[in-house]
Amino acid sequence: MHGYGPTPQQQTTSRPSSGTLTTVRVILVTVTVLSCGLLGWVAMLRLAFVTRKPRDWVLLAVVIVLNAALFAFIMGTPDDPDDMSDAAALLMMVWIIGLLAGVITYYLYTEIRHYSSLGSPYPAPGHPAPLPYQQPPVHHQHPGPGPQQSRHQGPQPNPYTAPTPPPTPAPAPRRLDQVRAELDELSDYLRKENNGNREGEGR
Length: 203
Description:
The protein contains six helices and no strands. The chain is mainly alpha-helical. Helix 1 runs antiparallel to helix 2 and helix 2 (40-51) runs antiparallel to helix 3 (54-76). The protein is elongated and about 145 Å long.
């Protein structure tokens, strides 16, 4: 018979090492902060490639639109900060802080959760391939004695087994002897009392 070949090992999705992930996260967060959120789409782009979820692709598009609008708003403000109104300055500050907080928080939370679900950063060792199937050898059994011969053969005693000795009776406990001695002393005491009473009555 033909033996079965080795079974193909399943490819397990392994996560990068913890040091690599930490370095990438620090770089992306630093770039986002230094650019005042204008390059926050870079972190969202990496996240969309890592998770490959439609929700992250949609959020990437939203961040790109917000970054483009923020860039246009900054370009539309006057060059002299004194000429900028308080409302425009407040709006730009809230826009930048909200974009930074939203992008960084969502990126770190989603990526850490995604890689935590993958398990260990090192791929699990594959199971060894099973050995080819081998047909077990067939042993030819010789016919034993017929039923007539087995009837005449009775059970034979084993000469090597020694007969078991009979169990020896256990000695009487010492407690029984003590009780008997106490009973004998009590009977002697009662006899003495009876004799004393009789002598007193005779007088």
